[in-house]
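CORE FACILITY INTAKE
Project code: CF-77B
Contact: R.S. (postdoc)
Sample description: multi-component assembly, two entities in total
Requested service: structural model of the whole complex
Turnaround: standard
Below are the sequence entries exactly as provided by the requester. Do not edit them.
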Amino acid sequence: MKTRKLTNTAVLAAFSLAIFVLESHIPPLVPLYGVKLGLANVVTLYAKATLGTRCALAVLVIKIFLGNFFAGSVVSLIYSLFGGTLCFVMEMLMFRIVEKRQIWGVSITGAIFHNIGQIIAATILMGTEKILWYLTLLVPVGILTGAFTGICAMYTLKATEKIHNRR
Amino acid sequence: MSNKKLIVIFAVIFVTFVAAAIILSGIQPEGNIAIISVGAKQIKEVDLSEDQTFDINTELGTNTVTVSDGEIYVSDADCPDRLCIRHGKLNNKYDSIVCLPNKLVIEYKNGSGVDAVAGR
């Protein structure tokens, strides 16, 4: 791995971690579990678009483990792992289907499956399937938050295009 | 894939799930008995025609449940997010008040899931 790539991954991981910790301090806006913007995903998507899948995975893994170490618990780590893994796998599949400028579509897919992953985690942890009904609300919520973070990622990529072209 | 196609796909998913949520929220429960469980274990059946307030104590924490005018809600809790309180009243057949930190679930009897079928 080139030094530049390594440094960039480290910087993005730090960014992602800071956003994650900051976001965890914002109280939930609606009385529903799992509803948050997921702004840290902007950084993961940016890492995938500029540095590749492996670096994006590194950013995600660092964010999940250190983020829950700083601002979470063992339980929230399990939720993050389920959500994050499913989200990442689906996003990487989606990256192959859509064009690069359609990163918002990748983000929406990621957000939907992040929420599905967390519901699966909740089902296992609670030992009850009753909470599956929450999916009827969490899927549309994921589409909205995913669209927002996706548009953020799209404009971030546009704004930093010049930096990447200069290399 | 064109932008249009992608937007249509997400719009269809969005509308389907919102419609499902609206339809489900309109279904009224049969009877007026609520079930309180902690995790997979049912711990209490509550008659909603009787006004009452009681605590559910587990090793995970305490939730105070109130029944008034045939409606049930969590009035106090020691969990950090207190989303169970903000959820408000149990309002349809498939609704459930969930407190994730305390693993508490409140729902109507014959509400959702396998428990109702198995008649536990």
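Facility notes:
- The CA atoms of residues 1 and 79 of chain A lie 31 Å apart.
- The radius of gyration of chain A is 16 Å.
Invoice: internal transfer
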